[in-house]
Amino acid sequence: MRDFAAELETRKQAGLYRTRRLISGPQQPQLVSDGVPLLSFCSNDYLGLANHPDIIRAATDAMPQTGLGGAASHLICGHHDGHHQLEARLAAFTLRSAALFFSTGYMANMGVLSALAGRGDTIFSDRLNHASIIDGCILSRARVRRYPHGDTEALADMLATTGGHKLVVTDGVFSMDGDIAPLKELAALCRVHDALLVVDDAHGVGVLGPQGRGSLAELGLSEQDVPVLIGTLGKAVGTSGAFVAGPELLMDYLVQKARTYIYTTAMPPAIALATCASLDLIEQEHSRRTHLQSLIREFRRGASALGYELMPSCTPIQPIMVGDNWSALALSEDLEQKGLMVTAIRPPTVPEGEARLRVTLSAAHSVADLRKLLAALADCRPLLKRPSSEVV
Predict the structure, then answer these.
(1) Which is deepest, 119, 128, 172, 177, by most CB within 10 Å?
(2) Is 240 a catalytic residue?
(3) Are 363 and 212 spatial neighbours (Cβ–Cβ below 8 Å)?
(4) Which of 166, 203, 291, 365 is catalytic?
(5) 344-368 burial string, b = 16+ CB within 10 Å, else e?
(6) Is 338 a known active-site residue?
(7) What is the spatial distance between Cα 141 and Cα 127, in angstroms, rounded to a whole number?
(8) Which of 125, 140, 175, 278 is catalytic?
(9) Angle at 74 between CA 71 and CA 80, to 5 degrees
């Protein structure tokens, strides 16, 4: 029998062991983690909507009419008119013809990629794509070719030397680096080489573009440029679930072929209606994005002045590069002692030798919150200069 205990011990010795935190109360910057109040800078609630009273009210008001559970899959008797309303709202919000409501972003990526490519086809995937994209590629049984991160020249060479059905998939905003894919260049390459382009904009929807419509809208890319857009609703939108948006023909095809859509119970319809309320707020309250961008600029100025190595990101994801696992863990633990929660990200989530602190900012953070973080980082700066053997 495989020695699972030994594998766990190996992870502990390498600084790769992970533990769950027990969070009490709603998701917001001021969290209670394992009974201890902390100021959190590690949530994906970029607009501060996860605990918004209007969205909570929309869910509770819906429940007497919709009930709680989805009860069945969409193709049996689980496709509620609340789901249908959300899909129409998502299509309008993303400026696309149609949309489908999935249970999670992971299931959306797995379902879309395994439906739109298969044996004999080729998927071209950015080397830093999210795990759900990687797993969706594997599930498809298509040939997978990974191109260097953001390297459109390397991708162009690969596309030019490959025949058959071709699909290119990329994150819009990369979840661990915070940078944005070269989407205009990718769209142009896919037109030239007759490849289907799929973009997972999980970390761009709500944050980027006019009225928060995402990274594609920010660059003026239409459904014709990027036929398949995937997004999650548990990040900036503040609710739960995910969606795929694009031409009606492709959405109909996914209803027939995407196993993670067909063979799972539909999400609670009250969540769908609460998401409609959230999309209204995202469109109407530009001040949230303005405040968030101000926090991002101030953080980058302050952390850079302290000598921290930041990555080139204009998004709420602001990684502090550390390097080795133990130093990243020690910096995270030192910040927690000062009342701040900032997660250390280690392999395999990021490449070996690129452990980091993933600072994420939210419109719910105040300027005072950010200054508290910068002051704590100033106090912790000497820790990064210690040899790794001293921070185990």
Answers:
(1) 172
(2) no
(3) no
(4) 203
(5) bbbeebbeeebbbbbbbbbbbbeee
(6) no
(7) 18
(8) 175
(9) 70
Q: Residue 244: name the closest of 107, 146, 134 by CA.
A: 107
Q: To which residue do tokens 């917001």 refer? A: 28
User: Considering only CA atoms, which of 200, 186, 119, 199 is closest in space to residue 158?
Assistant: 186
CB count, 10 Å around CB of 26?
A: 13
d(CA 317, CA 120): 37
CATH of domain 18-47+286-390: 3.90.1150.10
**Was domain 54-284 assigned CATH 3.40.640.10?**
yes
Active site residue 235: yes
**Tens-digit pLDDT string for the chain (392 aa):** 899 999 999 999 998 999 999 999 999 999 999 999 999 999 999 999 999 999 999 999 999 999 999 999 999 999 999 999 999 999 999 999 999 999 999 999 999 999 999 999 999 999 999 999 999 999 999 999 999 999 999 999 999 999 999 999 999 999 999 999 999 999 999 999 999 999 999 999 999 999 999 999 999 999 999 999 999 999 999 999 999 999 999 999 999 999 999 999 999 999 999 999 999 999 999 999 999 999 999 999 999 999 999 999 999 999 999 999 999 999 999 999 999 999 999 999 999 999 999 999 999 999 999 999 999 999 997 655 544 433 33
Q: Which two tokens stand for residue 381?
A: 């700066």
Let me know if the fold of 18-47+286-390 is the same as that of 54-284.
no
Structure tokens at 268: 């609670």
pTM: 0.94
> Which position among 52, 235, 291, 365 bears the catalytic label?
235
Torsion angle in degrees (nearest 10) through CA of 43, 47, 52, 56: -80
Q: What DSSP element (H or E) covers 171?
A: strand 166-171
Cα 260 to Cα 389: distance, rounded to the nearest angstrom: 45
Locate tokens 């309008």: which residue? 92
Q: Which amino acid is at 248?
A: E
